[in-house]
Amino acid sequence: MPSTCRTCVRRKVKCDRLTPRCSSCRRGNHECSYEAPFPQTRKRKASEDLADRVARYERILRQHGLLDADTQTRVSGIAPDPNSFHYNEPAASTTGRVLAAKGTSRYVSGHPWTNFGEEEVRRVFEEEEQEQREMTITSERLGDPLTDALVGSRRSLLQYHPTHTEALLLWQTHVEKVEPFCKILHISSTSAMIERVSHHPELASDADECLVFAIYQFAVYAMTDEDCEQKLGQPRSTLSRRYHSAAQQALVNAAFLKTSDIQVLQALVLFLLSSRQYYDSQTYWILTGVAVRIGQRIGLHQDGEKLGMSPFDVQMRRRLFYQLIPLDGRASQMAGTVVSIPPDSWDTQLPLNINDEQIWPGMTEAPREQQDATQMIFCLSRACIGRFFASMSPHLSSTGPWKFDSLPEAESVIGAAEREVEDKYIRYCDIVDPLHFLTVGLARAGITAMRLRVRLTRVRNQTATQAEMREVFHLAQKILDTDAAVSAHSGLERYRWHVRPFFLWGTFDSFIFVLTTLWTRVSVLSPVEVEEAWTKVEKLYCNHDELLGTKPLYVALRRLTLKAWDVHARSDKAAEPGFITSAQRCNVFKGAVCD
Predict the structure, then answer these.
(1) For the segment 504-544, what is each residue's pLDDT rounded down to a tens digit?
(2) Residue 25 above 70 pLDDT?
(3) Whole-number Å distance between alpha carbons of 246 and 394
(4) What value, to the nearest 5°, has the Cα angle with vertex 279 and ends 274 and 285?
(5) Closest C-alpha to 472, from 482, 460, 490, 483
C-alpha cells in the first residue's frame, strides 16, 4: 500500500492513498505523487515490537552508563563479586556524527545518541520520521509558528481577544502562577499594557498583541480544568487551542523571525515554555533555536551594563537571557544534540536580587540589591546552580562523565556553588512559604546532584567498594526524598502545572541507580533499606503520572522497575502494589491506557 501522497501531507488533509491519484487530489485537480515507502521488514506482533523497542531503550541507558549491564555476566553464568559494584564504561567517542541517505542528512550529538552505533541511530530516526508523517495525517496537533512565518500570511486577531474582565483574570493568573518561575516581564509595565489592549484591542501594536496572547496562553496552561470552567465558562482544552493559535499567529504578524524587539522575544519564550505538549522534540528544538538566535541578534549574550544600557534594560535583558539558557538546555537534551549557548560564548551577569518595584523604564541609577528573599528568589537560585553546572561543562564529554583529576577538586567547585547559593538566596528563604520551600528543594537537590554525578563517574570508571556504592545510594535517596517532599506539599498545589511534570536535578540519575541496586546488588542493602527504597520508588510513581506514559525513557524505566520488583517479590514474597500493576499494564499496552 502506498504512503500518504506529498500533496495531502503538505495540505494536512486525510489521504485515501488511491492510485494513480487519490480522491483529494482528484477533486482539487492537484498533482498527486507518492513517496517511496521505507523498506518493509517482516511484520511483527505488537508484543514483539514492544519488546524490541524496550530492549533498545535499555541499551541506551546501559551505553550511557546509567543502567547496570547484566547480559555478559548473566549469560556466561559467572557470578559477580558481591563486594563490588560495576557500571559500564561510557563510550569513548565525544564527537557527533552525520547520518546521510537519499539526499538527506542529520547531525546527531550529545546524550544519548553518540552512544549508539550508526545503524541503530539511523533506525531510530527513520522510525521517528515515519511516525511524524503519520501524525501529520491523523493528529489534530496545531502547526508551528516557524512554518506559518514562512508560508502563512498576516491575519487579524480581533475575534480572539477576550473581554476586559477575562483579560484581567488571565493576567492575574499569570502573575500568581507563572511569574514566580519565569520572571521575564515587568509587572507594572505589563499590567498597564494589558489594561490598554483589553479595552481597545484594535489599537494594539503587533508586539503588544504578541505578548498578550502569549500571556493568555500560559495562564490557561497554568489553570486547572475546573478553574477554566468556573471562571471562564469554557473547557480548558478549548481555551488552550484558541490562545495557542492566536499567539502563534500574533508571532507571524509581528514578523518574529526578523525582530529586534525584546517584547516579541519575551512573547516567543512564554509561548515556547507553555507549548511543549504541542511539538515533537525535533520541532521544539528548532523553535527554541530560533529564540536563541533572536536573543543573539538582540545581544542578550553580552551584558547590558558593559554596553552602556539603562539600568532597567540591563535587568530585563539579564532576566530574559537566564530564561533562555534552561529553555535551550531542556530542548537540546530532548532532541539529542548540544546546547546552542555554550558557556564560553556569553558574559551576561546574573540579574540583581530585587523586586519589580525597584526598577522602571527611564530610571537613571542602578537599583540596590536586596539582602533578602525577593520576587526573583526561585529564578536566581536556579540560575546560580545552572551557571555552576555550565562552568563544570569543560569536565564533561557528550557522553556524560565528569573528568576531574580528583574528588577533592570536584568537591571544591561544588562547595563554592553550595556556599554561593546558600549565602545569597537560601539563607533568606522561609520554608513556610511554599515557593521558598520549592526553592530550597531545587537548590539543595542541585548541589546533591553534582555530588552524585561526580561519584557516579568514579563508580563507572573503576570498581567501587560496598561503602562507596552505599554512599552513592544514599545521595540518590536524598534526591528522591526531596522530590517526594516537593510533590507532597499542599501549598504548592497552585503551582501544579510546574510541580507535576517537574523533576529536580538528579532525579533520573537517582531513580535509575536505586532501581539498578535493587535489581542487581540488593545484597549490599539491609532489609530495612530495601523496604525504604521501594517506598521511595512508589512515591515517585504516585507523584509523577508521566512515568506511566509512552516516551522511550519512561518505557525503559518501567521495565527496569519491573525487573527489580521481580527480584524483590521472589525473595520477599511481597504483595504486588498498585504502581507495579500499572507499570505492567502500561508496558503491555504501550501506555495506551495510561496517557
Answers:
(1) 778 888 998 899 899 988 888 889 999 999 999 999 999 98
(2) yes
(3) 42
(4) 90
(5) 460
Phi, psi of 235 (to 5 degrees): -65, 145
In the chain, ranges of CATH 4.10.240.10 domains: 1-37
Q: For residue 456, how far is the Cα from the chain centroid?
A: 23
- Give CA separation, 499 vs 31, 437, 488, 490, 494, in Å: 49, 12, 10, 11, 9
DSSP assignment of 21-41 equals: S-HHHHHHT----BPPPPPPP
Residue 449 and residue 503: Cα distance in Å, rounded?
12
Q: Are 543 and 484 in contact (CB under 8 A)?
A: yes
> What does the pLDDT look like over 48-58, one tens digit per residue?
454 555 565 55
Question: Quick one: CATH architecture of 1-37?
Answer: Irregular (4.10)
| Separation CA 62–CA 325 (nearest Å) | 28
Quick: pLDDT tens for 386-432.
888 877 765 544 344 455 667 788 889 899 999 999 999 999 999 99
461/516 Cα distance (integer angstroms): 17
Exposure of 74 in the CB half-sphere (CA atoms within 13 A): 6
**Can you tell me the distance from the alpha carbon of 371 to that of 381, in angstroms, rounded to the nearest whole number?**
14
Whole-angstrom distance, CA of residue 470 vs CA of residue 83: 11
| Grid cell at residue 214 | 502569549
Cell 479595552, located at residue = 199
